Structure formats: structure tokens, C-alpha cells
Amino acid sequence: MDSKQTSLPPKVASLLKSFPTVLTLDVLWGDMDANQHVNNTKYLSYTETARVQYLETIRSQRDDPAMATIIPMVKENVIKYKFPVTYPDTVSVGVRVDPKSIKPDRFDFICLIVSQKHNIVVCDVRTHIVAFDLSTNRKANMSDEFLKGLEQWERRVDSGWELVVEENAQL
């Protein structure tokens, strides 16, 4: 996936202006189910892809050996479906960290999925992340360097920088 600065449709940009990472995905015909709307499991795939992009951005900006063994792991997803998405459409997925949720060993991602066809939020997801040490198979604390990376990336939206948009990323 190539990262590039791209403008979103005005209404979509307005809905996602507080998100430092925005991933834009085409809805595929195969994303729909027998009920003629995007299957509920696909929303999790969309947010997973956007969360991975967010974390890869943090990883690429930090030189921290701890990031090789202490990884963010999903503990829980809370999903609120608001409007059915159908093919054809394009969705934009905004990802940010809830600053009130950050603890040494955990934090929450907030994700919004916006339909570009309807210009509305179609789903919001809160994902509870815990730090996990692959070398010990136990819960761990995140490194200070990783936490600094989160803070630096989140400040992008506070300083008025453009949103990072991944155009038509592949799932």
C-alpha cells in the first residue's frame, strides 16, 4: 500500500477530521451476503486493515527493538452497526486512539466507517488492545518509545496536518 495525501469528499473529510489515519477501501461484490448488504464480519476486516496501517506507521517511525516481541493484541471489539452498506460503494475508515484509555499495558482504538455513497457513518468500533510479549506469552507493558509514537501520530490531527489516506487498499 502506498501512502499518499488525498482529499476525501467534503462530508467524509468532515466526519473523519479528528482521525490521524484514514484508509479508503472499495466495497467488493463479494463483501455482501445473502441479505444484499455487506456482511457484518467485513466491518471487522475493514477496521483491522486500518488498525494495522496505523500501527505500521508507528513502527516505521520508531527504532524500538521491543516492538519486535511486545505486540498489540485485540482483546475485545465493540461494534455498533448504524446503516447497511451495499455494493457499489467506497468506505473510509478512520482510526485513532482514545487518549483517556492509554495505560502502560493497554489502550483503545476508535474506528469510524463512513460510506462515501451516503456520506454517513455506517459503523463505529471500539477495539480494546492489550500489550502481549511473544517471548513470554504473557501480558506486558508497552515500551515508552511505542507510547511516544502513539502520542506523536495522534498530534498530527491537533496540529492541522492533512489526513493520511490510503487509497483503495487491498484486504
UniProtKB/TrEMBL annotation:
Single GO term (MF): isomerase activity
Pfam families per record: 4HBT_2
Keyword Isomerase set for record: yes
InterPro entries in the cross-refs: 4-hydroxybenzoyl-CoA_TE (IPR050563), HotDog_dom_sf (IPR029069)
Family according to the record: Belongs to the 4-hydroxybenzoyl-CoA thioesterase family.
Organism of origin: Rhizoclosmatium globosum
Name the record gives this protein: Thioesterase/thiol ester dehydrase-isomerase
CDD domains reported for this sequence: 4HBT
Keywords, sorted A to Z: Hydrolase, Isomerase
Superkingdom of source: Eukaryota
